[in-house]
């Protein structure tokens, strides 16, 4: 494997790992990387790999809740619907449905590819939804905790999550915004958002894997393994740092970054 290939894999994996769970849009950074750095697009195989790395990171970091959801899923399949575990599993399933349906529509119509090519759109969503996060976060009460999550709220947050299919929105950013608007504390909003990422990453990864795995070469599998490790390690560190900072810091630093980058991208698109 060439050194430049290793460097490319490292850059893509670290960007994905760091930005996947921070409210600054991982998809926007991965889409923009080829435009800004002048390198070839990493391709779907690497996209699948880095998502699997971040999936492993969030499951390990939130292992207690992830295990509860898995136990709950088994209970739901047996018709046991009233335990704490089955409630969590049902909430995650309900929260995932809108994004899956919306994603299928965008993919079948080709709109998703068109949006990925619009730097101006990415800039506008980066800045606009960043300001929305700041506005909600500075005004909403902080009285609810993650254990208070209802199925109705799961459906509403699922609709918020579906909006994240617009590049630059940030899945974590928009779901945290929705949870804060419901009155969840910053830490609880982030925790709910991270748990919601597990089924959506699985769904998105499976959809991409169907297209790329049957034709994958040995070299691609090697690159995929490296990308998975890099992305997983960086995502775990980023998760720990964000959850620690949320005990004393608001989302404002992320908002400032989003607005600066978003306005810069808009200017770059039209100059």
- End-to-end distance: 38 Å
| Average residue-wise pLDDT | 89
Number of helices: 12
Following the backbone from N to C, one meets helices and strands in this order, namely: HHHHHHHHHHHH
Uncertain spans:
none
Fold and architecture overview:
By secondary structure, the chain is mainly alpha-helical. It has one domain (43-270). It has helices at residues 3-19, 26-37, 44-61, 63-77, 84-109, 111-116, 119-139, 151-163, 171-181, 186-212, 218-245, 252-270. The chain is globular, with a radius of gyration of 18 Å.
Which features does this protein show?
271 residues; mainly alpha; globular
Q: In brief, what are we looking at here?
A:
By secondary structure, the chain is mainly alpha-helical.
Topology:
Elements: H1 3-19, H2 26-37, H3 44-61, H4 63-77, H5 84-109, H6 111-116, H7 119-139, H8 151-163, H9 171-181, H10 186-212, H11 218-245, H12 252-270
Helix pairs in contact: 1-2, 1-3, 1-11, 3-4, 3-10, 3-11, 4-5, 5-8, 5-10, 7-9, 7-12, 8-9, 9-10
């Amino acid at each position: 494997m060439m050194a430049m290939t290793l460097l490319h894999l490292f850059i893509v994996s670290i960007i994905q790992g760091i930005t996947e769970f921070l409210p600054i849009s991982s998809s926007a950074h991965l889409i923009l990387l080829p435009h800004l750095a002048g390198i070839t697009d990493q391709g779907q195989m690497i996209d699948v790999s880095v998502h699997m790395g971040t999936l492993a990171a969030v499951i390990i970091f939130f292992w207690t809740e992830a295990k509860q959801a898995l136990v709950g899923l088994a209970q739901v399949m047996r018709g046991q619907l009233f335990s704490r575990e089955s409630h969590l599993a049902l909430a995650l399933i309900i929260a995932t449905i809108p994004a899956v349906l919306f994603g299928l529509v965008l993919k079948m119509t080709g709109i998703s590819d068109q949006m990925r090519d619009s730097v101006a759109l990415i800039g506008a969503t980066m800045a606009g939804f960043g300001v929305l996060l700041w506005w909600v976060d500075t005004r909403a009460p902080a009285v609810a905790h993650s254990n208070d999550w209802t199925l109705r709220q799961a459906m509403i947050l699922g609709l918020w999550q579906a909006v994240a299919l617009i590049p630059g929105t940030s899945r974590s950013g928009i779901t945290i915004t929705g949870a804060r608007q419901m009155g969840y504390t910053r830490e609880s909003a982030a925790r709910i958002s991270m748990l919601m990422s597990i089924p959506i990453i699985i769904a998105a990864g499976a959809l991409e894997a169907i297209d790329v795995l049957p034709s994958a070469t040995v070299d691609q599998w090697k690159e995929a393994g490296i990308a998975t490790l890099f992305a997983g390690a960086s995502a775990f560190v980023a998760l720990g740092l964000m959850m620690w900072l949320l005990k004393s810091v608001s989302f404002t630093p992320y908002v400032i970054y989003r607005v600066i980058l978003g306005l810069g991208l808009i200017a770059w698109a039209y100059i």
